[in-house]
TrEMBL record:
Residues 1-30 form the signal peptide. SMART domains: Tryp_SPc. It comes from Streptomyces griseus. One of its GO terms (biological process) is proteolysis. This is Serine protease.
Length: 271
């Protein structure tokens, strides 16, 4: 279970902050997870609901302290992954992180002049979150100040077409584009397809990596591999048809054809 997030304290997290695997043209290389390249740049002007979670105190200033993603679902409400606010990720208990911020309107995390950083006044971890299986991986952040209504992304309804297998979706995140520690500071996105629950059930029957449970999880990726979220994208949005359907949660490696991405099924878990 500890291994699953690929975290080993602060240095481990920084090294693991990676982005979306490349939309490769052919099958993913065997070690796709160690060569995270490509993807394409996305703009927060087009997707104003994509936010970064940052703590300069914990993760340094260079990339605005980014360590996870999130998504604006209400003027004062941001959803992220429950595991993003775990001690395992933060290195200390959340109560000891003095400067947790939601960063909005900033494509390039190096340009601290653009966009805004909003303090978080409350964090509610989904009471159903199970770190052993990753079930229900969602936390709700309440912001100290409102964001514009234009930045709010609607959540898909349970069982809607957007979250059905075959639905075309896009996942967003910030991070490493080479796998060698060359961190992109700019927002990226990649297109994936919602896959059958059976595909993820087969891929993740239950191991140290996690166990797929369709009630609270959503399976998405590319049958050929190569298109995926990766470490550091956690908590960021998976969007289809203009609706939020998932949050980046977990997976085995990144971009492997046989190991799709697993997302929090927001329609089932969000309060
Ligand atoms: N758990 C990772 C994080 O904390 C996200 C992993 C997503 N992996 C994947 N293959 N889709 O950033």
């Amino acid at each position: 279970m500890r291994r699953r997030w690929n975290r080993s304290g602060r240095a481990g997290l920084v090294a693991a902050v990676a982005v979306l695997a490349a939309p490769l043209s052919g099958p993913a290389p065997a070690a796709a997870d160690s060569v995270v390249v490509g993807g394409s740049l996305a703009s927060v002007d087009d997707h104003p609901w994509v936010v970064a979670l940052g703590s300069r105190d914990r993760f340094g200033s260079e990339r605005s302290g980014q360590f996870c993603g999130g998504v604006v679902v209400g003027e004062r409400t941001v959803l992220t992954a429950a595991h993003c606010v775990d001690e395992e990720v933060l290195g200390v208990a959340l109560s000891r992180v003095p400067d947790l911020r939601v960063i909005s309107g900033r494509d390039d995390l190096r340009s601290s002049g653009k966009g805004r950083e909003t303090a978080v006044s409350g964090v509610r971890v989904n009471p159903g979150y199970d770190p052993a299986t990753n079930a229900g991986d969602l936390a709700t952040l309440t912001l100290a100040e409102s964001l514009p209504a234009s930045a709010v992304l609607p959540v898909a309804r349970p069982g809607s077409a957007e979250e059905k297998p075959g639905s075309k979706a896009t996942v967003f995140g910030w991070g490493d584009t080479t796998g060698n520690g060359t961190y992109s500071s700019r927002l990226r996105s990649v297109g994936v397809t919602v896959l059958e629950d059976a595909t993820c059930r087969r891929a993740y029957p239950g191991s140290s990596v996690g166990r797929y449970e369709a009630e609270t999880m959503l399976c998405a990726g590319d049958a050929r591999g190569g298109r995926d979220a990766c470490q550091g994208d956690s908590g960021g949005p998976l969007v289809a048809g203009g609706k939020l359907i998932g949050l980046v949660s977990w997976g085995s490696g990144c971009g492997r054809a046989s190991s799709p991405g697993v997302y929090t099924r927001v329609s089932a878990v969000a309060p």
